Amino acid sequence: MSDAEPLPERLPVPGPSFLREHAVSTPDRELRAGLTRPTTTDEGWWLAVGWIADADGVVSFVDLAPAAGPRPEPPLAILGPALAGGLSGLILEDAGRLSIRLATVVPAPDPTRPWRVPAAVRMAFLWEPMRAAAMRPNELAESVLAAFARAAGGLARS
Fold first, then answer.
1. Are residues 59 and 51 in contact, defined by beta-carbon separation less than 8 angstroms?
2. Cα–Cα distance between 103 and 76 in angstroms, integer?
3. What is the pLDDT of residue 5?
4. How far is CA 42 from the centre of its chain?
C-alpha cells in the first residue's frame, strides 16, 4: 500500500485470538477484544497486539469514545493508565515508572484527530519477576486480555 492510498474503512482482525475473545461493553453495542500470541524479546519485553472488533473488523477508537465525542487527549493516554491499573502489581516498576509501552498499530493520518485510528494496539510489558514466575504463560496473557477489554470498554465512560 503506497502513502497515497487511503486506509480501508476497517482493518481486518489480525487473525484468530490466541485466547478466547472477551466481550467489550459499550453503551450501544457489544464488541470483542482479542490478543495475538505473545512473544518475548531478548531483553525480556512481553509483546502482543490487542484489538477491539465487531463482525466487520477492527473498530475505530471513535467507536469506543463517549457518546458526547472523543476527549481531547489521544485514546492511549486514557487506555494506558487504565490498562496499567488493571495489571497492578504485575508490571515491573523501574526508577518510579511502570515498564509498559503502548502504540497504535496504525498511526493517525491526522495527528489532530488521534481517535480516528483502528483500535489495535501494540503492547509491551516487563513483568515483576516474582509475580510473573507464579503464573503460567496463558494466565499472564489472560490477565492482559481481560485488563485490555475492561480498559477499552471504559473509554466510553471516560
1. no
2. 7
3. 59
4. 22
Contact criterion met (CB below 8 Å) for 78 and 71: yes
For residue 35, the Cα-to-chain-centroid distance in whole angstroms is 9
Q: Which residues are bridge partners to 24 per DSSP?
A: 31
- Report whether 36 contacts 141 (CB < 8 A): no
Residue 38 CA to residue 92 CA, distance in Å, equals 17
Provide the grid cell at 44: 525480556
Residue 96, C-beta contacts closer than 8 angstroms, at least 6 positions apart: none
Low-confidence ranges of the chain (pLDDT < 50): 1-2, 4
**Strand residue runs (E) in the chain:** 22-25, 30-35, 39-40, 46-54, 57-58, 93-94, 97-98, 100-104, 120-125
Cα 9 to chain centroid distance, Å, stands at: 19
**β-strands 100-104, 97-98: how paired?**
unpaired
